[in-house]
Amino acid sequence: MNIAGVNINEPESSASIFKRVEDYRDKTGIFVQIFDHNKVVCREHLLWAYEKALHTLDNGTNRGDSLEMEALLWASGRRQIKKAIRKMGLPDNARQAIVMVEGELDSFLEYMGWEQDDSMLEPSIDKLLALGITKEEIETTDRPYDLVFEYMSTSEI
Questions:
Q1: What CATH number did the domain enclosing 80 receive?
Q2: Does the model's pTM come out above 0.85?
Q3: How far apart are CA 8 and CA 140, in angstroms?
Q4: Exposed/middle/buried for 84, CB within 10 Å: 0-12, 13-18, 19+?
Q5: pLDDT 10s per residue in the chain (157 long)?
Q6: Domain total in the chain
């Protein structure tokens, strides 16, 4: 699984971006999901969500109708699709995003006209706060970035 930060050279509506992503999925048949870069704590955050999504689809306990949606639900820690999209989805006119692509990342980036910038995958306290982890929770541990896994595992899902 490839996970990368990307710069969106020509911002557009999230609906337009997702239409182009859907077209790419239809052409290639590969998994692609896009996230708000401000709420992805680190690469492992999304890898863990992806693994949980695979597991729930395999055992029939999924809430989403696709692997992409199930990964978004897990990454957001939300049960409802609308809440998950509001929490982790790409906002309109975003200039940066995090992408998960199963397969050739460069081909996807070329198709979308985006440039890779993995600096936005660096963890930060601001990302934990944006995800909904409280300052008090962060202050109680010497490993604050591990809180994202607790958040996802004890979430509404």
A1: 3.30.2380.10
A2: yes
A3: 36
A4: buried
A5: 999 999 998 888 999 999 999 999 999 999 999 999 999 999 999 999 999 999 988 888 778 888 999 999 999 888 888 998 998 999 999 999 999 999 899 999 999 999 999 999 999 999 999 988 899 999 999 888 888 888 777 664 4
A6: 1
| Three-class secondary structure of residue 54 per DSSP | helix
Domain that holds residue 52: 2-153
Largest CA distance in the chain: 47
Residues found in the chain: 157
How much helix, strand and coil, in percent to the nearest 5, is found in the chain? 55, 15, 35
